[in-house]
Amino acid sequence: MKKLRGKATAKIGALLLAAVLLTGTVFAQTGEAEGETQVLPLTLKEAQEISLENHPRMELAEVGVEKARMGVRQAKSAKDSLADAERKDYSMVLQERTVVPMAESGLKIAEHSYKIQEQGLKLEVERAYYDYLAAEEQLKNEKQHLERAEKQLRHAKASFEAGMVAKNDVLGAETQVAQARAGLMTAEDEVEKARMEFAKTLGMSLDSQFELVDRFQFERWETDIQAAVEAAKEKSTEVLMARENLKNKKLEFDVATSYWTPNVFTYREAEYSYKEAKIELEDLLADVEVNIRSSYMGINTLAEQYQVLTKAKEHTAESLRLAQLRYEAGMATSADVLSAQIELNEMEKQVTDVLYNYNTAVAGFKLETGLEL
Known about the structure:
The protein is mostly helical. The chain has a single domain, classed as Outer membrane efflux proteins (OEP) (Up-down Bundle). It is built from ten helices and two strands; from the N terminus they run H-H-E-H-H-H-H-E-H-H-H-H. Strands 1-2 form a two-stranded parallel sheet. The protein starts with a helix and ends with a helix. The model is unreliable at 2-34 (pLDDT under 50).
């Protein structure tokens, strides 16, 4: 939609051209071996821009706005026909007074939904980007885990040959290496799945290869919670629909008031509908505030967890180092080292998970409150 979306920038155009080339996936390049796959470097922002241009969901949202605009034109035509009628009953008066405002409400909601759809797609891309990053980070953790296990196996073999430990130490270390290799293969599969999901979100070939430029990082994020609550109330599509419904029910009640007396059923029915719409809006606004405040509390909790786990990870890494030194000096068993390795591997995974959850929680909060993603 030209009015809503505007023209793509030259940078986006270049990215899209690269995306089109990547759709073919495998091609020969000068200086490269035939059949080599090109890797597309992408920042998060660039990935979002590509998805907005490619994803069919935006086209569908455009259709919704165009249909709503057509509905306004039809409503205006219907109102003109009603205005020309010589005799009108209550239903005709009601329709004449409400048909255009209701159609305009539909257009307002459709245009708002378009913007929300755009922000929602950006959030979806951000989550897919972070999923991919998290999978890569976990793969890195598993590689480190395997390296530590192989190092311990070398020490166990050397100690066994020197007659310092029993054969069981070597067997235990070999088992740990085998488990680490299995974990590595699982992590490699998860990276591949995350890559394909990311490609699908961008509307690109599932064979497309990427280099994620932005990396995981922790930045303590804070905001004015009351301002965020008020912003969320304005951003919510459900709140907008409830407000428009209240406005239209008030208009219907005004028409009933001008046409009927309070003892008439039609008058009371319109009055009750207006009161119900008002209560529904108030309840919805309260729900939005509770959700936003709860989300913000969750973000702060994740921030605290990340800081605690990061320190715990450092302590666990030091514990493993000391356990390995004691083992080499014959003052610890292989079980001590194995236990420390498992604990560090689990701690690394927890740190990665919390960092992922923190970043996605902040992104979701920004979407709900209308803050820029």
